[in-house]
Structure formats: structure tokens, C-alpha cells
Write a structure and sequence with these properties.
The structure holds 2 protein chains of 2 kinds. Chain A is an alpha+beta fold. Chain B is elongated. The chains are: A alpha+beta, B little secondary structure.
Amino acid sequence: MSQHPAQDPSDGVEITVGYKALPGQQDRFEKRTVEPKTGDPLPWDANTQFQVVGTDVARVDGLAKASGRAKYAYDITFPGMLHGALLRAPIAKGKLKALSLDEASAMPGIAAVVALKEVGNKVRFVGDAIAAIAGVSQHAVRDALEKVRAEYEAEEHNVDYNVAEGAPLLDANGQVEDAWPEAKEIEEALGKAAVTHTGTYRTEVQTHSSLETHGGVAKWNGQDLDFWMSTQATFGVRGELARALQGRGIKVGTVTIHAEFVGGGFGSKFGAGIEGLACALLAHAAQKPVKLMLDRFEEHTTTGNRPGALMQARAGVDKDGKLVAWDWRSFGHAGFSGQGGSVAVPNYYAIATKPRREHKDLAIDTDPPRPMRAPGHPQGWFGVELFLDELAAKAGIDPLAFRLQNDREQIRQDQWRFGAAEFGWEKARAHQNAADARWRRGVGLASARWGQLGNQGRPAHGATCRVHQDGSVEIRSGSQDIGVGLKTVMAVLTAEELGAPLAAVNAIAGHTSDPSGPAAGGSMVTPSLAPAIRQAAYRAKLQLREMVAKHLGVPVGDVDCKNGKIGTGTAQLPWAEACKLIGPNPIDVRGERLANFEKPFHATQCGAQFAEVEVDTWTGIVHVTRMFGVQDCGLVIAKKQAESQVLGAMIQGVSYALHEQRIMDKRSGRMLNGDFLRYKITGPKDLPELRCHMHSIANGHDSVGAAGLGEPPSVASAAAIANAVFHALGAPVRHLPITPDKVLAALASKKA
Amino acid sequence: MSTYEMSGGDPDKVVTHGDLLPKYLCPSLLMKHMLTHSLGDRVYDARKWPGDGYYWCSRTCTCVGPDDEIVHPKDCQPGRSCYDGPQA
């Protein structure tokens, strides 16, 4: 714990980075000299003894959420508030030929009607927004939508990636048939390899399916706009809306976004969206508050998705099982924009020859993809990790031994060994399914990587800490908590630094009137904000220490703040008593995120996951029975929330591996399963036994050393499950989701 | 040029999203990495343009610009009719 004012920046401070041995492994500690910036506390490191950080605290807003007191955008209402909705195009491609809003405007209860396209504009997918209407009730708006006269000039459309422009030719087995582009070095390496393998892999489009749909409530007061929005980028949409509405005379400073509670986003809520702009326009036109939230079909079809992918790999190993050649090409399933289908692949498997990676996006006439929890990673890792298991099997090598042979990252080497022991890999892998067994069991594993550890931001991310004379503490950030536990992280960091009881701290997030912070993307919020939060609490502590020192008549340097007490030796004041010294005006300070230290212990986060499945060979149904994950997470701040992120990612991985897929009707261009009845998401009955180990690593990246957990644990899950299915069947299912028909086909192909 | 080409195929060569950003990008063009302040972060795959490939226009709040054409870093540059940034 830092108890002293900041050092002279020229003074280096030695810290210990790395991690304590995972069971059965060895300690990996190193010393680093870092230079804390003026105003920052001394950095926490591997030797720091914490009071609150890392403990099993409950989610600070859990009761509010469970009791319904938490107000999401959907819950906001105002007297006289209107309801808004959008008219959506019924064609997948064409032009808007005519548009008349007069009859709709004249309908009873309708207060505002806004055109979102002009006659002659292109229509690019089923669901493209044409117009917006606000009225006194949803029923009135629905009736008015029926009265909009819109005519379209339809053109031939395509919603099938197999025949998209630039799509590769596939053979009868679904393998890419196009010849590989010339690559002399790779060809030579493949020629010398002891074992080579080629495979084609596919994933389908997955929708974000956040429980709270997109939208919000807009309320104008003159030139000021307040918007309660379901967003994961409060400051981003503030600037965006100001720019979109600049013709109405507003400036960024007159827009305030509120997103105190958000029901998920997974990457789909970075922009205001046409629904956000329409809501603001309707509220401006009607001069009344307007609520506009999308319905579930709109959510599935107009707010982005994780793109599908077609991937092909070829590689070779030498006689010892070391990778000597690697070639990769992928095709992303984009929407009308023809972009956003990128596929990421691991970069830590050591390959003797320079690997090739090529990618092309394929456009079809649907809504474009948006970033989704580790964009490009779950699909790419599925393709690569299943391919590697097939290659290892061909070479007669155990998948774990293959990873240990080829993975060049020490952290994951430790994780592989620890995870395998914890999961019981050796015994489970040795299980032999009887040749005629109906139920076949298998186990698989997969790696994970994530690359971000947070940044300073511009303007620098900030936080406000207020300590009041009644002992209560406010910690505030304008960044949003989309449900991952940011408020708990804020409260824990503040309580730790101040030495205050956790219950005294009230964490408030999501209002742009508070200090700026990053959008919730790239697993950046916690590592980017944590040092600012800590600095704010630290600066408040310095002021409180001075008050207490003066009151007790002791040197300020001797005053310690710990476990709800402030003072030194026997001269101590309980937290509540000490805060009475503050008086009516609170301690009110701002913390700022400073630049990262230069050389972290490791620039990326590592992880490994293990899965066991049971496959019914009569029906083809796969049941994941258990999963175990070991996840590098930097400093564990709030243990329960951190574990929840990992376990939640595994659940989403089960869903991605076995269930989720968008099904399009080629003729109409419309999604056929745009609801939660036919778009299957993993439910409680499908869940395996889930366990995880938080691999806490002092990364020496900044004064806190936190890492985000939104993305990293979601990379490996589907790949580990696919590998377990491969082990169970003895034949791979190379196409997600692994539905019964594909399992039965794999079994049939094996018999054949 | 893709990151693969920029790195010369060296898996250890760091290429960032900022390296892929055109100099005279229209300020109305948005992407996730601008909002997460992470244009300085490393790119791990073979993409040619920064961000995750999801771009939208802050004047329309959609992937289509005021000129009814798709927005993209390669297109949202001086010369486009709706470009409203600094001239080259």
C-alpha cells in the first residue's frame, strides 16, 4: 500500500512483476524499475498486501439490479413522454422510389414524423430504416407506420455467402477448392515436413443478443439534449449526436448522455445508431421526451453481428512434432458494407517458416457486422485449434504435448500444465469409448490471447472522488458499466486506497457530466480507468491524512489509512470519526490516468481452456459436461466479478459452439429466426460444470496493473469444445455450430 | 497494404491500428478504436485498415455517409463530396 506522496519522477522505483507459481509450477518474478509520474501513488506490485482488492466482495449494484431499483434506459419515463418506432424496408436491395408521410402524420395521437431516407436513396438490407414516428402510445405509432406510403424499386439481392462475389469454390465436402497462391518458401517447408495437413473450417453469423435492446429516451430543453441511452460509449455517442444534430444548433457541451445501467452490448452499442438519431430528431420535432427502443427482431437484424468465417489452413510438422510450415486464408462474412469480417489467429505457435495469413471479406445484402466480444477471435481460434488437433492426431501426438512443443509463451506453458492437471487431462484423454457405444465422451483444449492492457486516453481518463463528513464516499466516472462489474471495481479500488469501509463507497458511472473515460470495448475500461480511480482516492486520502494528523497532533507522514481507521499507533480515529473533520464542504478531487510504464511483464494476456463433452451418437446431440479455464487477468480486483466474466464467456462459448446461427431466407433476404424462440441460445439446462482459476499477474503496466476480462476468456471456449467433439467422435466437425445433423454427418463420413 | 505486408511476415513486428490510419481521414468517420482510445494498439491479423472493419458516419449514425455511399477509411478522404475534414 502506498502511504506517501508521489516520488520525484526522476527517482526510479523498483517493483516486483510476474506471478506466484501456479500449483505444481514455479514462481516467475522479475524486478523492474519504473518511474511513477508526479501525483501518482507508488505502483502496486506482486508484493503488495491488500485489504479489499482481490477479496470475494459481492457486486455493489447487485441488490439494485435484483430488486428492480436499477433504472436502465428502458425504465426511464417522463410525464407526457412519447413512444417512437421505425419504419423498416421490406426489401434487401433496391431504391426508395416514393415516400409519403402525410397520412401517417395525420393519424390520431401522432406528434412527430421524420424521414430517414430521401427518395432515390439506396436500400441495402431488409430492415434499413426509412422513417420514424412518435406518438402517445406504441399502438398509435404502429397504426401510423401502416399509413406511411413507401414504394421501392427492388433489385436482385444475395444473402448467401457461398455465391457472394469473390467467394472461393468449394468441393462436395465443403473444402476450398481454389489453388493456394504461390508461396515458394511455404511450399518448400511443406515438402520437407514429416506430416502435413489441410482443412477448411466454417462459422456462422452470431448476433449480439443483448438482453436490453438498443435505444433510449431523448429529452430536449431548448438547445440542451439529455439522452438516457443503452450504450457502451457514453462520450462517443455524445460527440456523435452533437455532430449529427449540428444543424439544430447544438454543441457537444449541450448534450448529456446517461447510461448508469446498461443491459449488455457485447460490442454492438458503440454508436448512437439510426435509432438514437431518430429518437433525438423525433423529440426535437415534438418538443417532448421520446422513448424509442428496438424490438427483438430489429435487434437481431439491424444492430450488427459476429460475422461468420470460412477458413482454410495447411501446415506441416517435422518428425518431432514442431511446426515447420503454416499457410492460412480466410473469408469473412460481412454485410452490405463488405467489411468487418476479419479473422484473428494465434501468433504464438512457433513456426520455422514465415507464416502466411490472407483474408478477404465477402459482401452480401444484410446488416453489416459490428465488433463482438473479441472480434475475429472465437472464429479464428476455432479454425486454428481444431486444425492443430487434427494435425497432431495425424502425427500421433497428444494435443497437450503438441501445444507444449509449439507454444512459445512461458505464461501459457505454465497454464497448460496447471490446467491439464486441474482438469484431469491425462486420465480423461485416455478414456476409450467402446466402438458401439451410444454415448461417446471426449476432451479438448484450446488457447487464448488478448492484446490490450489499457491506456491513458486523450483527454486523459479521469475519476472524481468525494469524501463527505458523514463518512460516505462518492467515486464517479462518466464511462459506462455495461454489466461487467465496473462499479464494483471502482468501489473496491477506492476502499482499498482510502482504507475506508467498502460499504461507505458509492460508485456512480455512466453520466457524461462526470470525468471522461473510454468506451467499453477491447477489454479496455478497467485497465484504463483503474489508475485514475486509484489516483483520485489517493489524492483524497492525502487531504484526509493532513486533517487527521493536525487533529491528533502527529506528523502527517506517520498517519496510516487502513481497515477503516486513520492514525498512527494508539492514536487512531475510526473512519466515520475522521470524516467529521472534513466539515460541510467535501474533499473533492479528480484523479487522472497517466501514461503506462514502459516495459510491462508481458504485453498480452494468456489463457487456456479445457472442455469435456458427451455426444449422443444416435441423435447427434452434444452436451458439454464440464469446462475449466485458467485466465491471466492482471491484478484481480473483485474476485467474484472477475470469475463471473470468465464463466460467462464460457457459457457464451458453449452457445456459440453448439447453438447460435442466423438463418437467412434467400428469396426474401429476411432473417428467418429473428427471435429468441428460433434463435437458440444456451439455457441453464445446457450448462456444464464450470470452473476457472484466475491467474493473477503483476504486469507492472501502470500504478494498478489491472487487465480487462471482457474479451480474453471468450476466445478459447468454442475451440476447446470442438476439439472435445473431435476426440469423442474420432472425426472433426469443422463447421460451427456443432448441430446434430453435422455430428451425424461426421460419424457417417468416418464409417464411410 | 496489409499488416502482414507491413510486417514483412515477421510475427514479432508490431503494427498498430494508427499505422493503418489514412492521414486525411474525414473527422465524421468513427470506429471503435477511436472511442476506446486504442489506435496505438497492436494489430494481430492481416487487415489492411484500422479498427474492426465497422465504420460509421457521425453525421448519419449509420455505415452510409450523407452522400448515400458506404463509409470507409479508404473513401472518407478529400475529394468525397461530403468530406468535412482538413484538406491535404
